[in-house]
Amino acid sequence: MTTIAKRKNRKSIKQTPKEIAPAIAEAEMPTGEHLEIEVSLIDFSPKNYRKIFKQGEIEELADSIKTYGLIHALTVRQTGERYELVSGERRLRAAGLAGVIKLPVVVRELTDEQANEIRLAENLKRVDPHPLEEALLIAEMQGEGKSLEEVALRIGKSKAFVYNRIKLAGLIEPIQEMFIENKINILEATDIAALAAESQQQFFNDYCKKWKQKDFGIHNLRNILSRYKYDLRKAPFDTKDKHLKPAMGACTNCPFNSATLKSLFPEFAKEAVCNNKACYKDKCIENTVRNVRKAIADKQPDALLVNYALSEEAELVLQSLPETDSLPRVNFSDVTIIQTPTLPDKEDYLDTWNCEEGEEPEFDEDSYNHDMQEYKNDLAEFEAEATKETTKKGLTFSFDEWKVIFYSTEQKKSSYNANAPVTAKEVQEAIKAGTVTIELLTAEIARINAREERAKEIDRDKIQSQVHEQFLNQQETDEQAQKPTAADLVCARLVIYQSLDYSVRNAVNRVLFADTDFSNNGQFYEALANMPEQQYAFLIRMAVARKSESKYPTNVTAYALYEMAKASGLDVAAIEQAQEEKAKERQDKMELRIKELEKRIGRLEMIA
Hints:
The protein is 49% helix and 10% strand. It has helices spanning 55-68, 89-98, 112-125, 131-143, 148-155, 159-169, 173-180, 186-193, 197-207, 221-225, 277-299, 312-319, 365-386, 424-433, 438-477, 486-498, 502-512, 521-529, 533-545, 556-567, 572-607, and strands spanning 33-38, 42-43, 74-79, 82-87, 102-107, 230-231, 273-274, 303-306, 329-331, 336-338, 350-351, 362-363, 391-398, 401-408. The strands form four sheets. A five-stranded mixed β-sheet has the order 1-5-3-4-2.
């Protein structure tokens, strides 16, 4: 569908019938005085309803005025020593272009309301006004406080017609210019005008920059415009929430929601289309921010899991969440994702293929029980993995969904959560159907061996769990005071190290553990155990100094840092002395200022 509209097509959409103009009581207007005055003394009125003047038509009229003069006098009213144009702006523009010095005018004494009535009558009498002129005229009337019903009654048109024209008045200037030059027709202009100004500008930038070229045209416009619209019935946010974006309110009352027009256009009653792309996107982002903030508060993730780079929308969400600033970004390729096992669905084990119509399908109980046992084993493994020190929680974004998942920082290895080439169910079905192959059975053996390796890991986990539980019970029941062991002192260093945030920990690693393999627990423990006193002091000081509360003197952490700094040899007294000198200087200035103000008070009291 081309957007180039022909002038002749406007016959069916003329909207300013001549019979409306006489409704304006022209006979009640002052008759006025006929004069001839200089063009330079006439000012254009900002209240003229007509806004569009084609240069070619002005030039054509100017040539006529040069030859025949001005046939119809202008209507003006006097404003001091000058005159304000009431009607005849096109003629005045053409006369100026023709170089005419003086023009015939009718000078009338008119109120602002009477002048507006005459301008409206002049525009209503015109034979073939451009729809955009009508739109601007109606918008002007509405801007003067007239309701949609009053405007419709005044010009003798339906409310739907008036509303459509008001929409046209909302076209941004570049698209108005395209419409005036017939590069788009009225139906296309109305469709574009339904978009918010920001969406119109984006549409113009994307598709209309070359509109002045002779062969310009837009094909399949409505499909293109659909990219700037959204079905609110599928919105990921609550369209009734007026607090999501307070400046815009709820979608249910928004003028950019097509459903709000159902009284004017019944065909929209079952639709709810948003025409404000910027607002819709903002609401999507704000809704996501809410959900992510809740996920962070509830799940407390350790990192952001990303695939090299996040989308623009995801980055906007993170920019709105300062609580994510401290989360390190971890690439999916560097960790092992721990998948949550999927509970078998009984419906998957109903033999519907071999079931006659009307018969109940047979339930494969053996396969179901086998897979349920597999699920329980997987769930036990998952729970064991989730409690390990090397297991972390990552905030991740995929397919417009933010969620928190578990991942392991251990070196990747074949385990239950890897994508196995076969499943137990698949092997059982192949055996039962007689289609089993050597490759399938070999893959099943490999899967069983891998599961046994994993079972050994679970054994170690169970041992650790029992040691942990019994150790806690021992401490709670042992009433004798115990002296710290060498292992206790190493653990104290470990606790201090683990209290460091991500950035501080990296700095400490560079200084203290440059040659330590953190994936080797024994090696890291030995590094802590063999740490010289100077390095231990550095670890403690970094842990305290990098706490934000150590900057504020009312906090005990700040008090401890102060004492630590003095003990370390820092010249705290010099710092205090320098600040005391600044305080003394400030106090002297304050006392001088107070004395000046007291003198002023004394003088005012004497006057009073």
